[in-house]
Amino acid sequence: MADRLTQLQDAVNQQSENFCNSIGVLQQFSKPTFFPEFDKSSSKSPTAQTQSSEDFAQLFATLIARTAKDIDVLIDSLPNEESTPELQVFSNCSSI
């Protein structure tokens, strides 16, 4: 099992992936905005969506909230600045 700092770094990395993926889904399912001066009369056929954008929004909202809670728990489990090395060792032994 990894130490708490490694777990925290993994959780932060996971959260950044969640944000990047949610932005990608927003870009994929957003409706295009047309500007009259840039209209090129292109006819794009709408693509079939296998899963609605609301389902993706709910999924990523859940993932982001869950990962944020995990990050908070990991931060709270880190020793504070006033902890002596002996107290930190005792804390690590008691959590195992």
How would you describe this structure to a colleague?
Keywords: Activator, Nucleus, Transcription, Transcription regulation. Pfam families: Med21 (PF11221). Component of the Mediator complex. It is found in: Nucleus. One of its GO terms (molecular function) is transcription coregulator activity. By secondary structure, the protein is an all-alpha fold. It has one domain (1-26, 51-96). The chain contains three helices and no strands. It has helices at residues 4-29, 53-77, 85-94. Helix 1 (4-29) runs antiparallel to helix 2. The longest helix has 26 residues, at 4-29. The radius of gyration is 22 Å and the shape is rod-shaped.
Q: What share of the residues does DSSP label as strand, in percent?
A: under 5%
Number of domains: 1
End-to-end separation: 11 Å
What's the tally of helices? 3
| Structural class label | mainly alpha
> Which series of helices and strands comes N to C?
HHH
How would a textbook summarize the main sheet?
none
Q: Helix amount, in percent?
A: 55-70%
Number of strands: 0
Mean pLDDT: 82
Radius of gyration: 22 Å
Which spans have pLDDT < 50 for at least 5 consecutive residues?
A: none
Shape: rod-shaped
